[in-house]
Design goal:
Blueprint (H helix, E strand, L loop, with lengths): L12 E12 L4 E7 L2 E8 L3 E7 L12 E8 L9 H7 L9 E13 L7 E6 L11 E2 L2 E2 L1 H10 L14 H14 L13 H12 L1 E5 L6 E5 L11 E2 L4 E9 L8 E7 L6 E7 L1 H7 L4 E5 L6 H15 L4 E7 L11 E6 L4 E12 L8 E7 L30 E5 L2 H7 L2 H5 L5 E8 L8 E8 L6 E6 L4 E4 L8 E10 L9 E4 L2 E9 L4 E5 L15 E3 L6 E8 L3 E10 L2 E2 L8 E4 L11 E5 L7 E3 L2 E6 L24 E8 L5 E8 L3 E4 L1 H8 L7 E10 L2 E2 L4 E8 L13
Parallel strand pairs: 12-18, 14-16, 36-43
Antiparallel strand pairs: 1-6, 2-3, 2-7, 4-5, 5-6, 8-9, 10-11, 13-17, 14-15, 17-20, 18-19, 19-20, 21-22, 22-31, 23-24, 23-32, 25-26, 25-30, 26-29, 27-28, 27-30, 28-29, 32-33, 32-34, 35-37, 37-40, 38-39, 38-41, 41-42, 41-43
Helix pairs in contact: 2-3, 2-4
């Protein structure tokens, strides 16, 4: 439609075979693949297998940078894993099996369009160490930190390689139990850029733990810094067993921190976020905010992040006492992380709870044990803390979703005549039909849609163009049959885009918008425009403000053909896949070639009367689709035309709904149906109590798209006498 030529865009698709080594394996599951920080695939693959990635629109489709599509082998690295057939066929044999390694093998995957650069790939995997104490290995989808530490110590491939007999199993299980009950699971990655010792310290920092060796067994002992002790049962260090109190000092308020910013990882995006907690009393005491930042990337729970932030704030916001002691061998069994009570009468100290930070066991010749300790305020609070509120920001760019609501219409002659030149109109065939689409914006960030269509007999869809989203609303109240109406609406979308003077579809009726008030949600319309007639509409009927917002299919379809169309929503994140778009269908009906129905229909000089009496004079005005191409003509206008060859057909239906009389081949603008005719036709010995008339246009057997239908009651002597006594 329009006869304009189309430009042709030449682009390129890029395919790639690639072997990606991800991490040590096997893992429990592969749950997500991201490319260019966008999700290309999600699922729950729990063993080696093939993944089908189907995201060809991930980077905007072929009009932009393409997407990702194709088969990807996920090799978990099991002990029985064989060589990959694609690698063997591509690189040759012999080919390693790559056991003990999680890897992805891209089997000539479509990775981009128009851009030859490979975007970074990332894989989300799940793995918990289950070879020891498997029942507590996982905590709400995360790994138990005790299990992480156990594997770091014992793994011979990448860990420290200690034998399992060097682990104090009871202490590790006790810590695993505590962390499980606290919901303290971690999601961490160890990269070999840091040492395994550094990674262990990082895990201990997260949980508030201490890893030491037992002086009696030499085994690794794991402890948690918690309020998990009874003060009365703690050992006492006092002048009876302390050789020397080397130092005792208490921090001043000015040395404390009153604000702590904890940086952790969001579970859905795996990007860093933060939570801030404050000690308001400390801030008031110091008269200023003294802030400290701590980073715990393994925490992915908002609630856990809040609890750990409070834990750390308690440690840094209180002026704690520090002590250095030399004690005799009675303290030989104490280790870092242990708690004791300090009593020192000369300083006025009694039963001050201290926690050992470091210890020096001394030598055989010098039996004194050196202890550095700090006043104990640690302990993960068991009270519930309010989880941080979700951010107010939401991504303004939505993923493409199905255009909704949607409607297909056959283009009226009005639009075709305004789109084509005079020479193009001259070649317009009587059976040519054109498709228009109306699509609502599915989300605020959606831009437009691509229109694909085909006939029902064709095998493939073809891109026909782009469409703008159409403003729409629904009726808030019923609307009756009238030549003009003021209607109220609700459930509106993009209503601010419409302008006065354009046309809209109210169900199948075309109306012209003459006024709109978006505050009161009301608009005034002229009814029955173009090739339609006024009819009643129920509450909830949809009104489409179509003028200027139609998607246009320029294909010439033949009358009787059924056209299937799909609207592919376009957003900043790409275009909806063709297979994901719903299908709408419309049978072509040579709308543009049909004569307009007559206008200004009246009965006894009244438009759409509820009641009429006596002889009936049914009048109308000529209409001409070929001449009505400049402005939208209201029902109330007088004669235009008529179009050459047009006649009118008038049908009269009685009170039982049966056809009583037909006038065909009418060329004038009125027809009288007398009371005597009504009596003769009724078969009741009287006129019909109710009548309905139908009026349509006919041009050599081509009937108008719609026809007028007006129903009314009869009044007069013997007809609804009591109802209309005194006149109508």
């Amino acid at each position: 439609m329009g006869g304009s030529s189309k430009s042709v865009t030449v682009g390129y698709r890029y395919y790639l075979g690639m072997h990606l080594a991800i991490c040590h394996g096997p893992v429990d599951a592969v749950t997500e693949i991201q490319v260019g920080e966008r999700q290309a695939w999600s699922g729950n693959l729990t063993a080696s297998g093939r993944i089908t990635v189907n995201a060809p629109e991930l980077f905007g489709g072929e009009k932009r940078e393409g997407g990702i599509s194709g088969a990807v082998d996920a090799a978990f690295g099991e002990s029985t894993q064989g060589a990959n057939d694609y690698l063997a066929s591509t690189i040759g044999t012999p080919q390693p099996a790559y056991r003990g390694l999680l890897s992805l093998i891209l089997r000539q995957v479509y990775i981009a369009a128009n851009n030859p650069y490979i975007k970074p790939w990332a894989v989300r995997v799940k793995r918990c160490f289950r070879a020891w104490y498997s029942t507590k290995a996982e905590i709400s989808g995360a790994a138990n930190p005790a299990h992480i530490l156990y594997e770091c110590l014992t793994n011979s491939a990448w860990g420290m390689g200690y034998p399992t007999v060097s682990i104090d199993d009871a202490s590790f299980k006790a810590v695993a139990d505590t962390l499980s009950s606290e919901g303290f699971g971690l999601n961490l990655i160890w990269l070999q850029q840091s040492t395994i010792e550094q990674f262990v310290r990082e895990v201990l920092d997260h949980i508030g733990g201490v890893l030491t060796t037992s002086p009696s067994t030499g085994r690794f002992v794991l402890k948690l810094v918690r309020a998990n002790y009874a003060v009365a049962s703690l050992p006492v260090l006092d002048p009876t067993n302390v050789i020397e109190l080397e130092s005792f000092q208490r921090a001043a308020w000015g040395e404390t921190t009153n604000e702590l910013v904890l940086i952790y990882t969001k579970s859905d995006t795996f990007k860093e976020t933060s939570i801030t907690v404050q000690d308001l009393a400390n801030i008031q005491a110091q008269g200023a905010v003294v802030s400290q930042t701590r980073r715990y990337p393994g925490i992915t729970s908002d609630a856990l992040a809040a609890r750990v932030a409070m834990r750390d704030l308690a440690a840094v916001s209180t002026p704690l006492a520090k002590v250095r002691l030399k004690v005799n061998r009675r303290a030989w069994s104490l280790t870092p992380g242990d708690v004791f009570k300090l009593s020192w009468p000369t300083l006025g100290i009694e039963n001050l709870v201290m926690r050992i930070a470091a210890i020096d066991g001394g030598t055989l010749t010098q039996g004194a044990i050196g202890i550095d300790a700090v006043e104990d305020v640690f302990g993960l609070p068991q009270a519930s803390y309010t989880a941080p509120q979700p951010p107010g920001w939401t991504d303004p760019v939505p993923a493409p979703s199905a255009t909704t609501p949607r409607r297909l219409v056959e283009a009226p002659y009005w639009d075709i005549a305004r789109a084509m030149t005079a020479s193009e109109l001259a070649y317009l065939d009587a059976t040519d039909c054109y498709l228009q689409t109306l699509g609502g914006r599915p989300a605020s960030g959606a831009l437009n849609y691509d229109l694909y269509s085909k006939t029902s007999s064709a095998s493939t869809y073809n891109l026909r163009g782009q469409g703008e989203f159409c403003p729409h609303a629904v009726l808030a109240v019923d609307v009756g049959q009238a030549v003009t109406s003021t209607i109220t609406y609700n459930a509106q979308t993009d209503i601010d885009l419409i302008t006065v003077g354009g046309y809209a579809y109210l169900d199948d009726e075309v109306v012209a918008v003459t006024a709109i008030n978006t505050t009161t949600k009301s608009l005034t319309v002229n009814r029955g425009m173009l090739d339609t007639v006024p009819v009643a509409h129920a509450t909830g009927s949809r009104i489409w403000f179509a003028d200027g917002f139609q998607g246009v299919d320029p294909t010439e379809y033949a009358a009787g053909e059924t056209v299937n169309a799909r609207l592919l929503t376009v957003t900043g994140k790409g275009t909806l896949a063709l297979a994901s778009a719903p299908t709408d269908s419309l049978a072509m009906n040579r709308r543009q070639n049909r004569p307009y129905p007559p206008g200004n229909v009246k009965i006894n000089n009244v438009a759409y009367p509820a009641v009429a009496k006596g002889d009936l004079v049914i009048s109308w005005a000529h209409r001409d689709r070929l001449s009505q191409t400049v402005s939208l003509v209201p029902q109330t206008n007088g004669n235009i035309g008529p179009e050459a060859g047009v006649t009118y057909t008038l049908r009269i239906y009685g009170e039982a709904g049966s056809l009583r009389r037909t006038y065909s081949g009418l060329t004038g603008t009125s027809q009288t149906y007398t009371l005597a005719d009504d009596t003769a036709d009724s078969g009741l010995g009287r006129p019909n109590a109710r009548l309905r008339i139908e009026l349509e246009s006919n041009r050599s057997g081509v009937i108008s798209l719609q026809k007028h239908s007006v129903a009314f009651e009869r009044a007069g002597y013997g007809l609804s006498y009591d109802k209309y006594y005194g006149g109508i």
